[in-house]
Amino acid sequence: MPRLGTQRRTTQHEPQTISSTSNLEDLKTYYYTQTLDHFNYRPDSYTTFKQRYVINSKYWGGANASAPIFAYLGAEESLDDDLPIIGFLSDNAPRFKALQVYIEHRYYGKSVPFGSMKAAMKNESTRGYFNSVQAIADYAVVLLHVKKKLSAENSPVIVIGGSYGGMLASWFRLKYPHIALGAVASSAPILYFDTIAPQAGYYSVVTKDFKETSESCYETIRKSWAEIDRVASKPHGLEALSKRFNTCNRLNRSFDLKDYLDSVYSDAAQYNHPPTYPLSVLCSAIDGASVGTDTLGRIYAGVVAYMGNHTCYDMNEFNRPTKTLDGWSWQTCSEMVMPIGHGSKDSMFPPAPFNLNKFINECKSLYGVMPQPHWVTTYYGGQVLIAWIYSWQSQVIRNGWLCKERQRSR
């Protein structure tokens, strides 16, 4: 399942850039003694852990002026990964004289309960406190603490997040309207649950991005899957594929190569931002291969252009165990069950529909728990949530689009 973080899963292709108005020297780090379980009164519920948050007060107009607070809600990665690249807060803080607050998501970065990620992910009991409901309760507690500490009770709070963090921002505004006056939810797939959105939606958009970038690139990729299977079916075919794609280890199955390419393409589309536009880089290499280069040769040229020129290519590049990958794997196997699959029509990917029963069995095998595919829509809302977001009461900006209903009501 694709990860939803604000930065790509592999960062080898492109260096991080820091917003022009952001200076890491202006950031001050704090740790709040956070309650492990906000919703129970058992003795273990009162266990605490240190939750990291960062403040930039350079442009803040102060509590006496009731200057606003921009609060970035951390998602499925360390704040160390986010701070150099999140520009929305620092770009807009000078204009609004806003205090910038960045809060790390529990179980990521340095905000891990039980002393270490290994201990925190050890069993069903320690993982049980790792969910979005606890996370947004954390944010509420930290924001109230910051406002009290700075005597800023009258400063309005705008919560901000991208992707999964954007979902958290939407849900925070829904559940804690007395704390957040508004929310900015960038690229937040809040309806990708419980069969509300088309299962093939994600990969349909990836396909559309490639097709709009280059029709010939799209066609080459679309044809390549059958070519991979054809070569793999021959005697010593997997060995031949390993050589063609310069894999670090010999392929044991063609699926590993196809899964790797799937991740490369979705990664390029999901993070196709300026100034480099990595999707265009990838397609230019596929289209620009020398005359006579066959389909697999063109695909390999795209891999080299996107991933960089390396001595070999690790087919587990996107699946290496990391704190982020381990954490997100748990979240998707518990409450964040998004039925993402390949469609059979108008897709450059081979058909691969999402199989809920298979997914449940895999998650039970990994973690010993049953996923809850209906919980997100039960707790946060489904179609009704969209109606609320587009009403004047919500004060939610989703995907960069300010809801017009509030303006019309004036």
Automatic annotation (TrEMBL):
Signal peptide: none annotated. The keyword Iron does not apply. SUPFAM superfamilies: alpha/beta-Hydrolases. InterPro entries: AB_hydrolase_fold (IPR029058), Peptidase_S28 (IPR008758), Ser_carbopepase_S28_SKS (IPR042269). One of its GO terms (biological process) is proteolysis. Keywords: Glycoprotein, Hydrolase, Protease, Signal. One of its GO terms (molecular function) is dipeptidyl-peptidase activity. Belongs to the peptidase S28 family. This is Lysosomal Pro-X carboxypeptidase.
